[in-house]
Amino acid sequence: MIGVWIALGVIVVLILAIVALYNGLVRLRNEVKNAWAQIDVQLKRRYDLIPNLVETVKGYAKHERETFEAVTNARTIAQKMSDAGAQARSKAEGELSSALMRLLAVAEAYPDLKANQNFLALQEELTSTENKISFARQFYNDAVLRYNNQTQMFPSSIIAGMFGFQGSEFFEVTESVQREAPKVSFS
Prior knowledge:
7 helices, rod-shaped, mainly alpha, de novo design (two linked rop proteins)
């Protein structure tokens, strides 16, 4: 009789451990999804700012059409990639960042534009948004790290395999241009 109680106790402990590991994996997977959604929130904010910034610069630099088109096209492509994986999304966002850097470089050539209050406010808002995007990406990568560790470490890797939990992709810089520090000139 005592053996039955011991066996039953071991089974209950084992079931509780499996439930705890499963719930931990679900919590971490949802944290990754939430972190990804936070990146989306900041990117939406960036997408909303870009047309205003482009229109403001257009008023001063009418002959820079190629730059404006590059920013607009990169924005459109990045928005279309909203359902893509982290790698494809990272590449599209990198191209948008590069186009924005070119737009801001064009703005440097127009002293009147640099002094325009609307442009300065938009530029500050864009800088703030870029910082928030950076923080959101960092939070996402931290959440992915915790989740991937949990899905790959024993004993939770067994539960992850049994219930189909798979690791997530990190949000990584794929373009070498993005790794370089931007050149700022005040001349």
